[in-house]
Amino acid sequence: MNKLDTLRLKQYSHESKAWERLLYFFKQENVFLKTRLSEVLDNRNDTELLVSAEYFQNHFILKDELIDKLLQEIHDQEKDWKENFINNRPVPYKKQLDKKERLRAQMQDFKENFREIEIEFNKYVISI
Question: What pLDDT is stored for residue 23 in this prediction?
């Protein structure tokens, strides 16, 4: 493997590790939001609140599932790159770059969507 390939592998690995840290942060943030939802329900549990709580709880559960899916995709991509590097196989750049670009887009969408539901939840809690 040439020097350029080694540099690319290091860059992709760095990017993957940054995404993992970000997803673990969101996982912790999601735990906080679910805990906050539970606290709100402990203080007041009328029917309207229960409907809203279910709405937010479903979103939080879906976020957990998506985080796990994204983490798995990151690990799979990292494994593919490292296997090619270790076995000194040519890296199928076009295919790998397309996967990496799709994952970048998924990460961007996830960050935006997570922040939207977090803001929506915080506004809702303030309003009740």
Answer: 98
